[in-house]
Amino acid sequence: xxxxxxxxxxxxxxxxxxxxxxxxxxxANGDYVKVYLMGHYFAISAVGDSSNETIARFLGIGxxxxxxxxxxxxRQGIIAITRNGINHSEHQFDVEFLSIREKYVKEQIELPxxxxxxxxxxxxxxxxxxxxPHIKRMFENVEFYxxxxxxxxxxxKVLEFIEIYHMDVDxxxxxxxxxxxxxxxxxxxxxxxEGIVKNWRDERIFTNEAYKVNKQTDSDHYxxxxxxxxxxxxxxxxxxxxxxxxxxxxxxxxxxxADYILYVVKEATKRTNNPNINYINSIFKSIADTGxxxxxxxxxxxxxxxxxxxxxxxxxxxxxxxxxxxxxxHCATPNLxxxxxxxxxxxxR
Length: 349
Hints:
The chain is mostly helical and 349 residues long. It folds into 3 domains: 18-106, Arc Repressor Mutant, subunit A, CATH 1.10.10; 122-206; 212-308, no CATH class. Helix content is 63%, strand content 2%. The protein is built from 17 helices and 2 strands. The protein has helices at residues 18-24, 30-45, 52-59, 63-75, 100-106, 122-130, 133-146, 152-163, 169-182, 189-202, 208-232, 241-253, 258-270, 277-289, 295-319, 324-327, 336-348, and strands at 79-82, 94-97.
């Protein structure tokens, strides 16, 4: 036998036809609407103990008002009242909810049309926006950075930064500050600022707080990038894209900590005369193969590989053939003064 426990909290929902809300509810008594909704809820949820008395207690109204409400809705043609004379009385009867849509079709009543939202003209939007002190201050700041007043069309364009990209007012001002003050863009500066806002939208940066967190993260990442390039001997003013992509992979995909990256890079560059990013990346992979990516794991890796390196260097040195220059036996040379004297005596003869 299979059973299922009943929920202790009602998370259900009761669907009401929009025609009822649009055509019937506005002109009905408030208590009548409550009675209709409660009865509809009981009918949908199949509540066992449901009666007019139950509705009256729940809504805090008299039983006579409940009965009047049902008679009202019956006259509207959206419910049907049935009495069988056995369990029913003046105050207790069956209520059947009828389909309002079917009623409209049978009686050939024109269905209510959805009201189209009236489009607001750009000028009306601008007038309404300027009345907001925050928007007004935004325009004042943008005009200060632009060093000229904005045209109405330009103001409408700036408003779209808020409406389309959902950008905070302060972030719009910041976009124009970066455009005009930091990057000195004067031609098509609005389009340039829009590009900045688009990038922020794509990065899910909509407020000053989110921007500060993102900027700090970028700053830390840039400092790490420069430190790695400095250790490897790469020109920091022209960092190759493959180097930047590899370091991004270490940070974002592999999840390596900055201190771990710097330690491995520092130790790896000590062990080769020609450090490069591929060599260091191979060491990261070798350490990861040990199962851990921590500084302690890196120390153990370099320690275990140090003996092998020393043996290689000793064997390499033993096999290296000495050159003639290395075999040259330095001997003492005659005194320079004596050589000069002999040369002078020979010339005087």
